[in-house]
Amino acid sequence: MKVLYEQFKFFLNLYFLIVSCSQFVPALKIGYLYTYWAPLGFVLTVTVVREAVDEFRRYKRDKEMNSQLYSKLTVRGKVQVKSSDIQVGDLIIVEKNQRIPSDMVFLRTSEKTGSCFIRTDQLDGETDWKLKVAVSCTQRLPALGDLFSINAYVYAQKPQLDIHSFEGTFTRIMKTEY
């Protein structure tokens, strides 16, 4: 139903639907019904089939991505988890050339400067490289396990329709001694 709504949202498709429906009124009938309904039906059939194929491909890609394994850092060490089991707040270890399952705030990288490039794949097949920089105070920690010893929190905005922006902040709470 949504596919039909999306198609008839366009003026020309809606126009041809109205013209085709007008052929049921004897006073407005000009030619044979199939000369109006066949082209409209063909266009709608091709569109519905194309949307179904695209939806099936998205379903398969989502299923594949949701079953991919990632290393999750815990107090006891690394644990393998499926991407569908990753929760907000988990510390995920991302390896070189590995796809990331969602928006992330980078806490540490293997580069001294804390920078890394991530490749983003768009729905239209275009790929972009984006520079991301790790949080400076966590980048300076001597070991990966030291992430559990700091008192901090991460704010991440709710999921947005705009896939090109993500707002996340890291706040470290410093201990004050009296």
Automatic annotation (TrEMBL):
Residue ranges of domain P-type ATPase N-terminal in the record: 2-37
Keyword Membrane tagged: yes
Name this polypeptide is given: Probable phospholipid-transporting ATPase IIB
Domain P-type ATPase A stretches: 78-126
Origin organism lineage: Eukaryota, Metazoa, Chordata, Craniata, Vertebrata
One Gene Ontology cellular component annotation held by this UniProt entry: endomembrane system
InterPro entries from the UniProt entry: ATPase_P-typ_TM_dom_sf, ATPase_P-typ_transduc_dom_A_sf, ATPase_P-type_domA, P-type_ATPase_N, P_typ_ATPase
Alphabetically ordered keywords of this record: Membrane, Transmembrane, Transmembrane helix, Transport
Subcellular location: Endomembrane system
Record membrane topology: Multi-pass membrane protein
Highest taxon of the lineage: Eukaryota
Residues spanning the membrane: 12-28
Major place of residence: membrane
Pfam families, A to Z: E1-E2_ATPase, PhoLip_ATPase_N
